[in-house]
Amino acid sequence: MTQNPLLAVEDLRVDFATPKGLVEAVRGVSFSLGREKLGIVGESGSGKSVTGRAILRLVRPPGRVRAKKLEFDGTDLLGIDERAMRQIRGRHISMVMQDPKFSLNPVMTVGQQIAEAYRINGKGARRETKRRALEMLEAVRIRDPERVYRAYPHEVSGGMGQRIMIAMMLIPDPDLLIADEPTSALDVTVQLQVLAILDDLVTQRGMGLIFISHDLNLVASFCDRVLIMYGGQVLEVCDAKRLNEAKHPYTRGLLNCLPRIEAGSSADLPVLRRDPAWLDQGV
After folding, report:
1. Half-sphere exposure (CA, 13 Å, Cβ side) for 211?
2. What is the DSSP string of 115-161?
C-alpha cells in the first residue's frame, strides 16, 4: 500500500439489480494510488470501467456502490453530498471516457466545450479561455487547432475526438486522471505522443493516473504498477516492468495470447482457459 495515498479504495463493490437477479460487476476491489501511473487490465466485462466510474460516483440506479473506504486526498467520496462531489469532478478528478463520440456534446463546438471545462472549474477569466483551449489542442498534437476549435464533434475523426476529450479533461489540471482506453483510436505515432503528455503530467506536476486498457504491452511499458482484474475482482498486482513474471494463471494466459511477430512464429494463438475457481481468488 502507498503511504499517504492520493486515492484509497477498500472493498469496493458495485452491483446492479436486474429482472434476472443481482449482477455483481465489482466485488471487493482494494488498492491505493499515489502520484503514479496505475494500470488496470483484464478482459471486457472484468469490471475495469465500472471501477473507474464508481470512484467518480457516476454509477446511476439501478447500480449501487458500496465500500469500506473510498477516500480521495482525505475526503470520503461516499460520505459527501452530490453538490460537494461536483466540486471534485473535473477540478480534482477527471475521467476520459472510452468512446468520445458519446461524451462530446453534438450541438456545441469543440472550442466551446473545452473552454466551458476551463471556466466551470474556476481556472480563469473568459478572455483567456480560448488561448488555453488552443494550447491544450496543440498539446495533444492536433494540427490546425483553430479549425478544430470551431468544428463540431461530427466533423472530426474518432482519433481526434479522443484527443479532444483528453484535452478537455486535462485543462482543469486535475490531481487524478482516470483514463479509460484513452489511446485505443489513435495511430501508433500519436499514441506515443499522448502517452508522453500524460507521463509529463505525472512526473512533473505530480498527478495520479489510473490507466484502463486491454493492451498489456502498452501498460507494461508505460505504467508503474498493474492490477489484473477478472470477474469483478483483482486477481494479481504486479510491478509493471515485471509483468512478464506474473504468477497467476489468468495473467499468464493473457500474456500468452498476445500476438508476436517473430521468425517462425506461425503457430495458432493459444486460447485462454478459464477456471471457475478464479472467481473466488480476489486479492
Report:
1. 30
2. HHHHHHTT-S-HHHHHHHHHHHHHHTT-SSHHHHHH--GGGS-HHHH
Q: Reduced to 3 states, what is the DSSP secondary structure of residue 240?
A: helix
pTM of the model: 0.89
Question: Cα separations (Å) of 67 from 63, 163, 226, 240?
Answer: 14, 33, 21, 26
List Cβ neighbours of 238 (8 Å cut-off, separation of 6 or more): 225, 226, 228, 245, 246, 251
pLDDT tens digits for range 84-138: 998 899 889 999 887 766 788 999 999 999 888 887 765 556 678 888 889 889 8
Cis peptide bond prior to 62, omega within 30° of 0? yes
State CA 166 to chain mean position distance: 11
CATH superfamily of 1-85+176-181+208-283: P-loop containing nucleotide triphosphate hydrolases (3.40.50.300)
The closest of 144, 141, 143, 163 to 153, measured between CA atoms, is: 163
| Backbone dihedral region for residue 28 (phi beyond 0: left; psi -120 to 50: alpha; all else: beta) | left
Q: Using CA atoms, how far apart are residues 138 and 94, in angstroms rounded to an integer? A: 20
